[in-house]
Design brief:
The protein is of the alpha+beta class. It is 61% helix and 14% strand. The protein has a 3-stranded antiparallel sheet with strand order 2-1-3, with helices on one face.
Length: 152
Amino acid sequence: MTSRRLVEMESARNRLREQAEAAEGRAQQALDREIATQVRLAGERAELEKQLSGADFAREVAESANTKLRAEVEELVEEVRQAEARPKCVYVLTRFGEIHSVHTSHEGAKAAAAREGAGGEWHDTPDGKPLPESSWRVTGAYVWPEQAGGTP
């Protein structure tokens, strides 16, 4: 080998060494970027899993509340159905034997009579009927809800 060939080989070796070092540097940078990306993605994944867990919990709470509300609504509907099936008591206010008004309470009927001037002339007998000289009378009556087909 000649010295010139040695110099060329040395130069090629140095050039290859520089290329290898540059490639190694680029590879290290790519690895660093990849690691940074993986760390960022792992953090995002952890945050998304946390949000998903919170959303799952909120959904379960909402489903539980929905189930409870449905049960309460069913109970209320049944109570209303039963209440509608029972007779309702109303109080008929008459004056001189003629119907004056209908009320939901005995007290409401008496108050209506008082507004019409019954005032001091209102006296109940022990059995709840007014005295014969009173022109006002309250009579309780039951009203049955209409059934299918129009029969009570």
